[in-house]
Amino acid sequence: MTSPPLRLCRSLLFLPASNPRAIAKARTLEADMIILDLEDAVKAEEKEAARVAAVEAVREGFGARLAAIRVNAAGTIWHEQDVAAVAGSAAHCIVVPKVEEAAQAQKVAAAGKPLVAMIETASGVLAAAAVAQASAALLVGTNDLRADLGIPAAAGREGLALSLQSIVLAARAAGGAVFDGVYNRLEDDAGLAAECREGRAFGFDGKSVIHPNQIVTANRVFSPDEEEVAAAERLIAAARGGAERFEGRMIEAMHVAEAEAALAKARR
Fold it and tell me: Same domain for 204 and 76?
């Protein structure tokens, strides 16, 4: 099960743990979670130093933002030391790439930090339900997943739809949070907004981002707008318990819970 703050995360910013300037800047940004990366963003010869830097960065903290560290994948020479370092750190979560079976998730979760398991392969999608049972959240690695499925980089997300919905379903069945993958085009805010709207419609809680300029859009789209907030407030005020009529439709306790969750995200 996940703690409430994870479900409220709208934007998760990946940045290299080997880049002190990026870490310092992250403390001024409005991302809900900062993910210090030890994997793809860090050269092999810099892995050890990046691990030390990540632990120090989360010790200093990021204000009200959640802080996580993405370790190197299982099977790499850095994985076990990464997991041990993060387990003993002040990080709120540990992010693990390319999780493909429940045993992987269970082993990392046993280290003591809430696990954000990345689903990035066909095998990972098929195992997502089992992986989610040991995870606080699932996070889609859309670039790797697209490549593993053989979907051209220039294609839309139609070919990913089944996988994305399967991952959302797995996370929700386990009571966890779930986050959409990154959008690669850094100067296409309209495209990013459209993909965020699609992700929210699929049921994702938020979106991972790779550039500070993407944070505002992710936060905006994954937050209830003014109309949604007003409607939620009216619904909560009107609800008296049981099934009842509200503004031309039937509502019950489930709808009140949804409205309360929307307001919590709006306050975030």
Answer: yes
pLDDT in tens, 55-110: 999 999 999 999 999 999 999 999 999 999 999 999 999 999 999 999 999 999 99
pLDDT digits 0-9 by tens, 115-156 = 999 999 999 999 999 999 999 999 999 999 999 999 998 899
Are 159 and 245 contained in the same domain?
no
Q: Are residues 206 and 240 in the same domain?
A: no
C-alpha distance from residue 124 to each of 101, 121, 167 (Å):
7, 5, 9
Q: How sure is the predictor about 262, in pLDDT bands with cuts at 50, 70 and 90?
A: confident
* CATH code for position 170: 3.20.20.60
Domain count, the chain: 2
How many other C-beta atoms are found inside a 10 Å radius of the C-beta of residue 241? 8
pTM of the model: 0.89
DSSP reduced 3-state for 140: strand
Residues 155 and 93 in one domain: yes
Give, in degrees to the nearest 5, the angle at Cα 109 between 167 and 46.
90
Parent domain of 24 = 4-223
Nearest to 54 by CA among 93, 7, 101, 98: 93
Is 11 in contact with 34 (CB distance < 8 Å)? no
One domain for residues 246 and 115: no
Enumerate long-range contacts of 113-122, CB under 8 Å, 24 or more apart.
113/86, 113/87, 114/2, 114/3, 114/6, 116/6, 116/68, 116/179, 118/70, 119/145, 119/163, 119/167, 120/144, 120/145, 120/148, 121/145, 121/148, 122/148, 122/149, 122/163
